[in-house]
Amino acid sequence: MKTSIIKYLFLVPFLFIRIPIFAQTKIDVEKEFHDAALQYEGILRTHPDIAKFPQSYSHDGKIMDRSADWWCSGFFGGSLWYLFDYNRETKWRNEAYKWTMAVESEKNNTTTHDLGFMLYCPFGNGYRITHDPAFKSVMLTGAASLASRFNYDYGVIKSWDEWKGYDYPVIIDNMMNLEFLLWAAKASGNKKFYNISVSHADKTMKNHFRKDYSSYHVVCYGKDNKVLKQGTHQGYADGSAWSRGQGWGLYGYTVMYRETGDKKYLKQAEHIAQYILNHANLPEDKIPYWDFNDPAIPNTERDVSAGAVISSALFELSQYSNKHSKEYKDAATTMLSSLTSPKYKAEIGTNGNFLLKNSVGSKPHQSEVDVPLVYADYYYLEALLRYDKLMKIGKLDLN
Description:
Elements: H1 4-9, H2 29-46, E1 53-57, E2 63-66, H3 75-87, H4 90-101, H5 115-130, H6 133-147, E3 150-151, E4 156-157, E5 169-171, H7 178-188, H8 191-207, E6 218-222, E7 226-231, H9 243-260, H10 263-277, H11 304-317, H12 325-339, E8 359-362, E9 367-371, H13 374-392
Antiparallel strand pairs: 1-2, 3-4, 5-6, 6-7, 8-9
Helix pairs in contact: 2-3, 3-4, 3-5, 3-13, 4-5, 5-6, 5-7, 6-7, 7-8, 9-10, 9-11, 11-12, 11-13
């Protein structure tokens, strides 16, 4: 188990690291949040209707919004809480509260596995900062809704209701929703939430990962708890490594170690990190291509959202890993430094006022390809906060 200081450090988006070889100066976090505030003021001006959640901005200049039941609906409110967490300006708290409450109705949604994204990102951050009991109540109801999708025979939480003729598909993304259930276990005293999380993580570890610790995107279960299909929905091929999926796994198992202290999760996270960081197709700036195995590399898209998720996860993992701590801090800082560069960060007033460019939603479906995405911004801000906190407590070596 971690010491109380280390454990609680990572219940918030605090984290740690040093600057990469090609970035000799430290990241100016104050400037990044200043720019982020200017951009998000623009989003707020163009989104007066809180029933339309900012999602992306298309190449032809169209704003792309989604409804509250879309899996990304919680990220905007979560990002607003991150802005308030940094600058403590009342206007950001007010906007964060408004956009958080806009997804309250999803607490009763039992048709999706994504309630961690939808509820824990806004309500979880809001509760962490304000301790508003209303936020806690919403989350406990939402956690029960998420837990209703757990099948005790299969030992995993069902993702979609159907995929390619299979009626029990589970995607690697689901690892990201376990933090929500683990919080609910502590907040409610109901260990059912904890047991579900552990079962899901263990079965995913067994059936989603290959010998090299790359991950399938989708695993389908069937009668007698058999694995019927291991494939992909958003990656290049069934046997390829969809980059954001690798990030989801890395982040998810890092959280599992934080919350349980079980070293098998630490080892799993380290194995995933080593796969990512040692891959021959990872570029020097460490922002991955949308799929590590796309044969068109280097003439294919990067996925900035994957880079943001991986950077944030590595900041945390570096504090738990003895053998690879410096390697993870260096890599995470390189990724974050890259994201702050003009190559990936939008100029003020452009990009639909989203912070980052060049994310990929689902290339096989030609959906949200090489555009900004709201969750890329969320994990970017989280990584910045983690970097900043680590700098302030002297956990980053910039030599």
